[in-house]
Specification:
Blueprint lengths: L6 H16 L3 H26 L8 H8 L20 H8 L7 H19 L1 H16 L13 H23 L6 H13 L9 H26 L1
Length: 229
């Protein structure tokens, strides 16, 4: 996941902190950092050699802007580098960038600053959009433009699993297991990705965790059923 999206760095270091306070096992934390460093080092070296910057992935600006601009919906707004759809002044700035190795990095920085400016200038609008993304990630996107998104064989199991997941979360909270690893992973994942944009395929990263949490709801149901009878 670290090789796919920069957001997973935040999740990774959050879990290292979690295990530090939960397990207090410095050796395992060190080994995790060591093996992750070995895995990502060829890509970091490649990027430094080309762009002269230590980075693995550098698309936070593009992703943040795609999900936080005047035309964005839950799925963001598909730019295809046609920024004039959104802002002529922004497009003019990008058009003036000279071809170079750092071309995409410069654009990413510009888009990051533009996205932050959008959010600051209209906090209530983008907060509402954030909540819509959050809900779409967990349950359903009511305004999806993806072909066959509302196909019964996609939407029915998604909603069913989402409902059982929410019940499972309630069960974990009721049983005072809020520091459950899977529950934290689920919430952190949704909270972070909702800052950007939510595509239908993103649900696949949550699917194994949703199944685990949903089992808590099923266990709770059968326990109560046995008690009732």
């Amino acid at each position: 996941m670290l090789l796919l999206r920069g957001e997973f760095f935040i999740i990774f270091f959050f879990f290292l902190t979690y295990f530090f306070f939960k397990k207090k096992n410095i050796l395992k934390i060190f080994l995790s950092l060591f093996f992750v460093t070995i895995i990502i080092s060829p890509y970091v070296y490649r990027n430094y050699k080309i762009f002269e910057i230590f980075t693995l992935t550098k698309s936070s600006g593009f992703n943040l802007f795609k999900g936080n601009n005047p035309l964005a919906k839950v799925e963001g707004y598909s730019l295809f580098y046609n920024y004039r759809d959104i802002s002529n002044s922004l497009a003019d700035v990008i058009d003036r960038i000279e071809p170079q190795n750092k071309y995409d990095l410069i654009i990413d920085e510009i888009l990051f600053e533009e996205a932050i400016k959008n959010i600051k200038e209209n906090k209530s609008y983008y907060f509402k959009l954030y909540l819509q993304k959050f809900f779409a990630f967990i349950v359903i996107d009511f305004n999806s433009s993806y072909p066959k998104y509302y196909n019964f064989f996609h939407i029915f199991p998604k909603i069913l699993l989402s409902i059982s997941t929410l019940i499972g979360i309630a069960v974990l909270l009721y049983n005072k297991q809020f520091l459950n690893f899977f529950l934290i992973y689920f919430i952190i994942n949704v909270a972070i990705f909702s800052f950007f944009f939510i595509l239908p395929r993103y649900s696949l990263s949550l699917l194994p965790i949703q199944i685990i949490i949903s089992l808590e709801a099923i266990k709770f149901y059968f326990k109560k059923k046995v008690i009732f009878f």
